[in-house]
Amino acid sequence: MPDQDEVPVLEITGLRLSYYTRAGEIPAVMDFDLKIAKGESVGLVGESGCGKSTVANGIMRYMGNNGGIVGGTIKFKGRDMAEMSAEEVRRIRGNDIAMIYQEPMASLNPSLTIGVQLMEVPMNHEGVDEEEAFKRSFDILIAVHIPDPKRLMDSYPHQISGGQQQRVVIAMALLSKPALLLLDEPTTALDVTVEAGIVELIAELSKQTGTSLLYISHNLGLMLEVCDRICVMYSGEVVEEGRIDSIFSSPTHPYTHGLFGCIPQPHANKNARPLSAIRGQLPLPHQRPKGCYFGPRCDFFEPGRCDQELIPMDFVDADDDPAHRVRCTRWDEIDPKAFVSADVAEAREVIPVGETVLEVDNMRKYYEVKDSSFAAMFTGGGNVQQVKANDSISFRAGEGETVAIVGESGCGKSTFAKVLMGLETATDGEVRLSGTDLGSIAVGDRTPAQLASLQMVFQNPNDTLNPSHTIGYQIGRVIKRFGIESDPAKIQERVYQLLDTVKLPRAFATHKPRQLSGGQKQRIGIARAFAGNPKTVIADEPISALDVSVAAAVTELLMDIQREHRTTLVFISHDLAAVRYLADRVVVMYLGRVMERGSTDEVFAPPYHPYTEALLSAVPIADPQVTKRRIVLTGNLPSPLNPPKGCPFSTRCPRSLGRLCDEQAPPVQLAADRHAIACHIPLEELRKVEPVFSTPNWDLGAAD
Amino acid sequence: MTEETTDLPIVPPDSMLTNMLKAIGLLRESPVGMAGGLIVLMFVVLAIFAPILAPFDPNAPTLPFAFPGTASPDGGVFLLGTDHLGRDILSRIIWGGQRVLFYATAATVSAYIIGILMGLAAGYFRGYQDEIISFFANVILSFPIMVLYVLIIAKVGSSGLNIVFAVVFASSPGVMRIVRGVTMDIATRDYIAAAKTRGEGSWYIMLVEILPNARGPLIVDFCLRMGYTTITIGALGFLGLGLPPPDPDWGGMITETRSYMTGGFAYMAIFPACAVSLLVLGFNLLADGLREVSLRD
Amino acid sequence: MPQMILRRIGMMVLIMLVVGLLLFMINEGDPRLIARSVLGPYAQDGQLDAWIMQHGYDRSMFIRYFEWVARVVSGDLGDSIIYKRPTSEIFWPRLANTGILAGVTFVIMVIIALTLGVLAGMKEGSPQDRIISVISIATTSIPEYASAVVLAGIFVFWLGWLPGTSSMTSGFNVVELILPVMVLTLYGFGYIARMTRASMAEVMTTPYIRTAILKGLPYRHIIMKHALRNALIAPFTVIMLQINWLLSGVVVTEFAFGYKGFGALLLEAALRRDIFVIEACGLAAVFVAVFTQTIGDIGYTYLNPRIRFK
Hints:
Oligomer: heterotrimer
Helix content of chain C: over 70%
CATH architecture of chain B: Orthogonal Bundle
Largest sheet of chain B: 2 strands, antiparallel
CATH topology of chain B: MetI-like fold
Order of helices and strands of chain C: HHHHHHHHHHHHHH
Order of helices and strands of chain B: HHHEEHHHHHHHHH
Distance between the termini of chain B: 34 Å
Shape of chain B: elongated
Number of strands of chain B: 2
């Protein structure tokens, strides 16, 4: 427990930060208070644009050319940083306060070796000689569990994996034993299994060194694993703060509560307990409403009270946390039960799965990586290497069924989507849609009916629509191409209907994509995919680029339309929480191969494939009642150009049987009728494995 | 189901006209770009209304070696003086500007049409199409450009059409490279995949889905290339490979009058030199302003 | 890495062969034209035919092309029609003169451009940035033939400080080099400076510079050690490509000042159809351009560790 008497490491009062644009001053952070004691770790959570990163930059006094500290004080160990000279600030940076950033690759200098970049920290701050600096850098690399630190010191950043890069950045930050460490979304760019290792490392090191942490993230689940206290931010303000257990057990602000409602937690279920999204969207900084910024999106908004003056923070007496505060005028009037009723939005009927629509049978997609350039023909270059992007993929999906393809980056899930869509053709095997093999038919050779029956929702909202054309043109073009309508008036009518379906105003038909928000663009993407009444829709990470509250709304919309049209949905994702929430069946992929497939319940309970087990364990769960078994994978993802000889997971598998796994491809074992696990370990052994999650009253079968 | 969009302000749709007005409006925020635009506009107006605005016949000999400001025997003033043959320099600059702008525009637009088609094909189809197109572009781009012009013009002779031909030949590979790069980038976007999955043909995708999104860098490059073509046409004239006399040509004017600089008649060569530089400056500033504006939003 | 160098060199040879073929086709494609330019306008048809037979020009063009390649590689560039001497006797001294002019210009231009570019890009949007940017746009707008006239007007005819021609009639004279170098530098430095500025400005906004700043490193150290190394990679290629442009400028500048370099030689040969000299000059120009580009490409990969250690 932090010592209350000591001078806090960081004390911020009434901080106001602004950016100056052509439109004038735009406040980014307002009325911000924060106190961090020695050894304490505080989380700053919120959606994009809420000002959480700006706070970190403000503490570092690094606001760029167009930003500035407008008001308030930041005291570091009791000293006001505004009174320090530029030279003093420089000496504090990287020495007393260090920072870790989101993109490890981008934050390391590409043309200097890692050794140089590490050594210059003690050499600059403490004036030590090269030998001493080398020794310290070497030691710190060992402390962040990097194998072969000597070789790493001579490496350039691009030569090591993302997880190792982030370990290097952490090492760099810890070299001078800072009193305060700022972490700005340090794991967002990493895969879940890598993220789990980094989070564990951060927690371990901060305990060892007594460094205070300010941990910035959009992920409430991660907060639970790292932080003692959290501040929830919304549109530049802290709306609620307190001890982590207090916030999780008694969220008081409607926004905090709304956030929890948007996260697909273990108890959520698409039929019995659907997500309840927050309506509307984050106000733009120069369009913030008067009074409570959350007002327009709040179910408890009361005109005359919530839209008047700036609302101060108020103490909440909850869970013996004297410091639990909330920025809401009506917090003590709102009945916590009112949240609950909103929470359990109408339960939905379970859609029965119809006959098989999509059948993938032993599909393979190999790429040949070779140098086929004109020049190489003359100079005799050109080694041919084979990349098995997809190897022996098989599964079936019925009408109205949702099949999730899960895996980390490089597992081949996007290649699979391309083959389904005909953007690539399969090397071998079949992809049958209603009995016709489409795997070998490239997109250009498919009939309009075939094209219409298989459509896709893309990942990146900013990429999914052509910026040069209006929304109406882009949807109308699909209708015309698929021969659904040809009369312009009827096309227009159909466009309007589709806009209604995705709950967007008809006026959007004349808009260009840049006038829309990310969530709205994804809705248009959904409308476009459903324009030809497809039998099957492939959704490639459709919500991964969206903020939680918006993602929940888009997820629900997709589910609703699917339910209505009885569409088969192939949902490609790296997000196991979302998958568990909405999928009926799950296919787990690793390095181009299926590791495990089965119904959602089967995959999320033992027997697990060891990879599934590790993946499940890595998912941060925003529910303190859930306890999970920790499995942290070591090693890096092997290169697809040079995959392991036997089981692809053998190099990282905590349950590896040794040579057998290393040298022979694993057999596919059937644990149940359609529950297959590709593993050498006998099923009986796998059945004995404890579940990863355990909760006192977690009812998976809530659907019935 | 909640809705994400209820209270959004409805923004009016863009028409082509409002887009153009907006571009000009944005340009106003870049004083440099605005200055460039005004310079170019001035030359365009001079070119269009040359018959009205030019005070004298550009080829008629009147009073040789008249200094700037000298009154003409037939009334009027030689504002920029006359050359060694007694032709009014201002009128020759105005008429010369018309020819430069005409040939530069014709050449650059033609180079753009070819360069865009080649670049789209190379960047979109990749593979052997790209190998072949890029190889020949590389061959052409290996020539120092003025060497290439000298070789071509010496071979085919100097005429307006041949100059256009030479410029198209020499600069379409450059356009092709830019378009190819932008196309390769845009071709990876999801909306291109979406167009493929609704069965669009290759040229529809290239011309309707890709090209409009490449317009930003292309417009900037177009302005720069107009400036460069202006320089080239002048250089050819200067080297004696330009438009056939007696019609005025800025580069030719400099060469013809250069030998009189010793006698204190430097203005004869300096005025056309200034005209060339000013027009090129206009194009360059315009390009810079457009780039600045397009990067901002 | 070695494979990449090999491939680049292979590409260079291939381009030279194709360029050679183009030059050969343009100049020696039609044997009668060669005979006509060698024998002069008054030669009879019979004389032309006899010359063609005698010199083997009646054979297929491709056979002649390969022979030509073999001769050029062995250093035999044919005889100049105008000078009635082996082309190499005229050509190499001229090329050396151009080498002096281009070399001096190149060094001065690069030093000025890099310095200004880095100064401007260090603080994007500052007054020093704006001034340098405007200057570099303005100077790139003045073509060589315009600045030649204007600078001559000032330094030769008004101030009388410098000679107006650079024909070096009384031996090599550095003073005569000043105006051509000024003209070439003035037009050329702006482009490199602007590229350097853009590269530097981009580097200054990268996360790794933020890392360096927030590590508490001194500003000087950040610029010298972290920024410059990355910021100068992109301009390096630009600088190498600039040699191609410099050769273009050389043609105009040599003509403007009567400097006896290869550009003036090319122009003279082109106007008087001295085919072997045209071929020699064309080949030399392309070789220098392609060679520097190849060096640029190889250098780029060497400078960029992301490619070097792949």
